[in-house]
């Protein structure tokens, strides 16, 4: 679908933040904030798993290490 445009560090940071937001959504936050944190956490985990970020594609950003 989309070409991969995220490096390993970018993917790892997104995965960690996504997991933390999901934990907060289920344990600490309530109401609308829990839904917002959960949705953002899911999106971060999904982009980390796929290795692609649609806004990066639109802006021409690529954080992968490229071989010269």
Throw out a few tags for this protein.
68 residues; mainly alpha; 3 helices; 0% strand; elongated
Secondary structure layout plus pairing:
Layout: H1 8-27, H2 32-50, H3 54-59
* Sheet having the most strands: none
Percent in helix: 55-70%
The tally of helices reads: 3
Average per-residue pLDDT, rounded, comes to 92
Number of strands: 0
Which ranges are low-confidence, i.e. pLDDT below 50, for 5 or more consecutive residues? none
| Radius of gyration (Å) | 14 Å
Shape: elongated
Give the amount of beta strand, in percent.
under 5%
Label the structural class. mainly alpha
The N- to C-terminal Cα distance equals 25 Å
Strand/helix succession: HHH
What does this structure look like?
The chain has 68 residues and is mainly α. The protein contains three helices and no strands. The longest helix is centred in the N-terminal third of the chain and has 20 residues, at 8-27. It is elongated. The protein starts with 7 loop residues before the first helix and ends in a 9-residue tail after the last helix.
Q: Care to give the gist of this entry?
A:
With 68 residues, the chain is mainly α. The chain is built from 3 helices and no strands.
